[in-house]
TrEMBL record:
InterPro entries, sorted: CheY-like_superfamily, NreC/VraR/RcsB-like_REC, Sig_transdc_resp-reg_C-effctor, Sig_transdc_resp-reg_receiver, Tscrpt_reg_LuxR_C, WalR-like
Sorted UniProt keywords: DNA-binding, Phosphoprotein, Transcription, Transcription regulation
Domain (HTH luxR-type) ranges: 145-210
Taxonomic lineage from the root: Bacteria, Bacillati, Actinomycetota, Actinomycetes, Pseudonocardiales
Name of this chain's protein: Response regulator transcription factor
Pfam family, one: Response_reg
């Protein structure tokens, strides 16, 4: 994106929430709301026309899961950030599985909303460790071979656990005393080995397989 502003498409069926999000984001330097909609059925057409960098999407009538899948299959897919009232909403889990970069609670403070948009626009994921553990635990889908067949090295296993803690690449580099490029390489290798397209999918796979116990802090 270079120095260009981060383009955000806001899709939210509650008009006052949508207006508030636009006001918060448009007030920030380097962020521009390129469009908005109150109906999830408009998402794909708007993404194709406006080509936003980030899709900030509430729980539209067509459902965030279907919308996420359709958007990410488009020619110029944005990063998808789900906006939810409840962190334990099962649709959040399914949207992450479908490729959403993260989720944010509607009651988040303006500074948190701005930070979330910047985070996903930069290619990072936005995961709240406690909320993700709750999501996985409520689905009752934990257990398996613990990714033994994935062939993760000791370092890669450590990287995956740090992902589950919600650490960014820079934070992982500091934690492990490694270079940022080295961490980025390890992250890419982890995604390939666990068969995930992105960090949220890798973290969910780690929980589902039993590699990480959702009933214990990471």
């Amino acid at each position: 994106m270079g120095s260009a502003a981060i383009g955000v498409l806001v899709v939210e069926d509650e008009e006052f929430v949508r207006a508030g999000l636009r006001a918060i984001l448009d007030a920030e330097a380097g962020i521009t709301v390129v469009g908005e909609a109150g109906d999830g059925a408009q998402v794909l057409g708007l993404v194709r026309r406006l080509r936003p960098d980030v899709l900030l999407m509430g729980m539209p009538a067509v459902g965030p899961v279907a919308a996420t899948r359709h958007v990410l299959a488009s020619d110029h897919p944005p990063r998808v950030l789900i906006l939810t009232t409840f962190g334990n909403d099962s649709r959040v889990y399914d949207a992450l599985r479908a490729g959403a970069a993260g989720f944010l609670l509607k009651r988040a403070r303006p500074v948190e909303i701005v930070r979330a948009v910047r985070t996903v626009a930069a290619g990072e994921s936005l995961l709240f460790p406690a909320a993700v553990r709750d999501l996985v635990a409520t689905r009752g889908r934990c257990g398996g071979d613990g990714l033994r067949g994935a062939g993760l090295t000791e370092r890669e296993a450590a990287i995956l656990r740090l992902m589950a803690r919600g650490l960014s690449n820079a934070e992982m580099a500091a934690e492990l005393m490694l270079g940022l490029e080295t961490v980025q390489t390890h992250v890419g290798d982890v995604l390939v080995k666990v068969g995930a397209r992105d960090r949220p999918q890798a973290v969910l796979t780690a929980y589902e397989s039993g590699f990480i116990d959702p009933h214990r802090p990471v």
